[in-house]
Amino acid sequence: MKLPGSVDIFEETLTKLQLNCADLIVKHAKDDLTIIYFGNLADPNLVNSQLLSALQHIKLEPFTMEDLCPLIPVGLTVLTCEMEQAITSLLRGWTVVYKAGYSDAILVNTAKPPERTPSIAEIETNVIGPQIGFTESIETNLGIVRSYIANENLCNESLEIGVKTKTQVQLLYLSDVAEEQTVNTLRQRITDLEIDGVIGSSLLVQFIEDNSMSIFPQLILTERPDRVGFSLLEGKVVLLVNGSNFAIVGPSTFLDFFKSPEDHYLHWNIAVFIRGLRFLAIFISILMTPAYVAALTFHYEVIPPSLLVPLAQSRSKVPFPPLFESLFLEITIELLREAGARLPTKVGQTMGIVGGIVIGQAAVQAGFTSNILIMIVALAALSSFTTPIYLMGISIRFVRFPMIITAGIWGGIGIVFTISLLIIHLLRQTSLGHPYLHPIFPPRWRDLMDTVFRLPFPMLSGRSTFTRMPNKQRFNKEQAKQKKDIDE
Fold this sequence. Notes:
alpha+beta, 17 helices, membrane, Spore_Ger, Spore germination protein, UPF0353/GerABKA_families
């Protein structure tokens, strides 16, 4: 659809397209120039004090819209002759500079979308390192990333998703480090989407990940710019979605979800210890409660004799079998967690602490459960919260329930059977076509130095083989070992 010949027809066209034109503002400058914008989307100060003032003082006789376009001193300007592009720009807060009778118009970026100032990351907190987090503005987030990586090889491609929402997405990668096939795969998956729209990056992830039926996330959602910076340097690709304060990082391995940017800020031996605690927490969270259920139901012989007497005394008043007892406590813990997350902050904290103490004590006195199981379930729940990525923590807690059920039905054989199914499932998973259990399978022992472990940086000169990057070296290993005094 071409641009109409008059302003009245322009407004009538907007009305026919079922646009609410109550907030459409039309102002006139000299030489029959007209500026059109939505008052609640554009910056009124920018439009009135700069754009309108500049149009009033420009002296160009005679002129065309092509001649006028470079003279406008306001932001980004685009020349168009398409009505559809003009309407899309209007709905994004741009201003249309239009003159009746001309076949083209000027689009001026005067958008001022609602946004907040960058603040501390609330979900992925750390003690040492940068504290800033992403916001809902894609322009602000892109500026934060560029402040971390000021390199000419940092590429960003602007994409659009959704027939209705027309959500802007920025595809970020380092051209000399990222694998071209990975960039093409992610770009193709986004451009192939034919949907009404996406509201937030967490919804987009479910459309572009390899296996949407899996309970394990295959792409990382992060609100930390430093994690994005580390990922870009490792050859990964990042997506920024307008309106979301979470960036999408891929491809990602299963072990990546247990790595924190803080591991790089701590000394290597402390980082190895903390990362080891996280991996230990996985096994505690998944296996502790099922092992209790299996031991009390089928395998009394594995319980130490010194523990049998206090365990029997603790369970003497409990009328339920271990399976129902453990499921009751696990569901109670999940209800307390969900209630604490949904209530206001101060009320939620009180609910989690007081509710846990009161319910736990009352459950023991009423004979619903034993003291030992309360300690085991609390330790398992605490271990699941050590996972740096929230989505993986939810998956770990979910896996615990089928493990408990199979342990209550078949004992140790049920636990082994469920773990086998879990390992087979993880072996079959991929992330943007890359193996999900790398570097465990396929085995890449050199990449274990910065996944399971975190060795000193002079030993990490080679980049990971996970993304098959063309640039294999981070730095010169021999030069990194040289330590010269100033007088040398």
